[in-house]
């Protein structure tokens, strides 16, 4: 029996797998991974935006091995040095004053915690989220996920209202200028809050990830912030995909909207552990310490994962991988735009740094083309390139998010494979 058949016999059907015959990854190095048949692939999805710096980064391997040799886990009931040191560094980087950091093991759990803090504070289950958003797979994270492809239940512990603004690729809003778009969305938010009682928070991704790497114009969340402040509503910035310099211009996605200061609560996960399960929440002490009960995450802040996070973050900062994401990402976007101009099914190449979306449509129309996206993924894989896809039910956006250490030569190599795959598919 193949590994795929064995997988289907024990793993739920709803676990999404790319590719008709799924790949068994055995190992990786740098920006490449290998499968069980010995094929190598350039990894343009960085795991799933999880391998932030590089596969098998020696500093991370060493930190994990050394820490594992001392103690694997001591629980959050006790102190461990890597956890406190990583919290200090993240608090300083967050931009949030008097910040406190709480570690979790995933982005879902981080968003759950943020929603718990906000709803407990306001004593209200009413929250706002963006249309086409994705925030995780727990009951409450699904309840603020506006992207129905990833939100299997309409039942919810929260009362969620969906706000305009996170996605702007189609509809009447798409025809507005940046300033008009921001003004229209802020007025809509004002109107909504004027008619709604006791809203606890707005949760939003600065650039929608699973939703197809769509972003609002810079400054949208600064305009929202001003409205939210007047109504006493907290702003939760979900930086699970946009954090750690991936967008090149900024360390956090919220910084493209910094006009009115940092978010009240920031959530993170994915890349910080370079594949180890590290997530977390940052908030001002007054918000974070407001929970009127004990709450721990059994595995959050575990010494081995914290050691990985510290080594990974140090490598990222010491080697200016944010700057690399800006430079190499800029080149890659340019190359892809040149290629896209020759392929009728490419509607738009968008992105920032090393977070790049290629949206596909049926040629001559504005209609999503999920079959083409699936075919390009297969053809790219044949050519030795792994990419992601997203964009809601239609899933017609190719998502490119390699490790931030991507070289210019690798960017060229990946762009050439993708060009062939686009033409072939
Ligand atoms: N938030 C965003 C923006 C995400 O993209 C994801 C995962 O893709 C999550 C939250 C959930 O994170 P996790 O899968 O670690 O629970």
Could you explain the architecture of this structure?
- By secondary structure, the protein is α/β, with parallel strands linked by helices.
- Helices cover 37% and strands 17% of the residues.
- It is built from 13 helices and 15 strands.
- It has helices spanning 3-10, 46-49, 58-70, 81-94, 107-122, 139-143, 178-194, 220-230, 285-288, 303-318, 321-340, 370-383, 408-424, and strands at 25-29, 32-35, 40-43, 99-104, 126-130, 159-163, 199-204, 234-238, 265-268, 279-284, 346-352, 355-360, 385-386, 388-390, 397-400.
- The strands form 3 sheets. Strands 4-10-9-8-7-5-6 form a 7-stranded mixed beta sheet, with helices on both faces. A 4-stranded mixed beta sheet has the order 1-2-3-13.
- Strand 7 (199-204), helix 8 (220-230) and strand 8 form a beta-alpha-beta unit.
- It is globular and about 55 Å long.
- The two termini are 31 Å apart.
Q: Globular, elongated, flat, extended or rod-shaped: what is the shape?
A: globular
Number of strands: 15
* Alpha carbon gap, first and last residue: 31 Å
Provide the succession of SSEs. Answer: HEEEHHHEHEHEHEHEEEHHHEEHEEEH
Largest sheet: 7 strands, mixed
What small-molecule ligands were found?
pyridoxal-5'-phosphate
Contiguous uncertain segments of 5+ residues: none
Helix-strand makeup class: alpha/beta
Q: Helicity, in percent?
A: 25-40%
The overall pLDDT, averaged over residues, is 95
Strand arrangement across the biggest beta sheet: 4-10-9-8-7-5-6
Number of helices: 13
Task: Give the DSSP E fraction (strand runs of 2 or more residues).
Answer: 15-25%
Radius of gyration in whole Å, from Cα? 21 Å
């Amino acid at each position: 029996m193949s590994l795929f058949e064995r997988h289907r016999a024990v793993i739920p059907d709803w676990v999404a797998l790319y590719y008709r015959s799924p790949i068994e990854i055995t190992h990786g190095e740098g920006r490449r991974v290998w499968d069980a048949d010995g094929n190598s692939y350039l990894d343009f999805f960085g795991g799933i935006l999880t391998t932030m710096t590089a596969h098998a980064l020696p500093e991370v391997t060493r930190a994990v091995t050394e820490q594992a040799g001392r103690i694997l886990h001591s629980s959050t009931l006790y102190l461990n040095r890597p956890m406190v040191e990583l919290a200090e560094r993240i608090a300083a980087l967050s931009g949030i004053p008097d910040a406190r950091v709480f570690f979790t093991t995933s982005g879902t759990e981080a968003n759950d915690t943020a929603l718990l803090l906000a709803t407990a504070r306001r004593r209200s289950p009413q929250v706002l989220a963006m249309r086409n958003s994705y925030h995780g797979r727990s009951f409450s994270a699904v309840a603020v996920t506006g992207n129905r492809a990833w939100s299997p239940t309409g039942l919810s512990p929260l009362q969620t209202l969906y706000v305009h603004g996170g996605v702007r690729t189609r509809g009447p809003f798409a025809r507005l200028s940046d300033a008009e778009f921001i003004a229209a969305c802020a007025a809509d938010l004002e109107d909504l809050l004027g008619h709604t009682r006791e809203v606890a928070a707005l949760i939003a991704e600065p650039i929608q990830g699973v939703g197809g790497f769509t972003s609002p114009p810079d400054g949208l969340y600064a305009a929202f912030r001003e409205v939210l402040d007047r109504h006493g509503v907290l702003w939760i910035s979900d930086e699970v995909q946009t954090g750690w310099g991936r967008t090149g211009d900024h360390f956090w996605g919220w910084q493209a909207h910094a006009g009115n200061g940092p978010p009240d609560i920031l959530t993170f996960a994915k890349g910080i552990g370079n594949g180890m399960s590290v997530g977390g929440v940052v908030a001002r002490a007054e918000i974070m310490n407001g929970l009127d009960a004990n709450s721990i995450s059994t595995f959050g802040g575990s010494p081995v994962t914290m050691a990985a996070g510290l080594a990974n973050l140090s490598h990222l900062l010491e080697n200016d991988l944010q700057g690399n994401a800006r430079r190499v990402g800029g080149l890659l976007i340019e190359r892809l735009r040149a290629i896209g101009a020759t392929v009728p099914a490419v509607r738009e190449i968008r992105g920032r740094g090393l977070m790049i979306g290629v949206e596909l449509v049926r040629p001559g129309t504005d209609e999503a083309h999920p079959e083409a996206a699936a075919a390009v993924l297969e053809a790219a894989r044949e050519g030795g390139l792994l990419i992601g896809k997203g964009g809601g039910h239609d899933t017609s956006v190719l998502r490119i998010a390699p490790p931030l250490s991507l070289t210019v030569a690798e960017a060229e190599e990946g762009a050439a494979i993708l060009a062939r795959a686009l033409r072939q598919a």
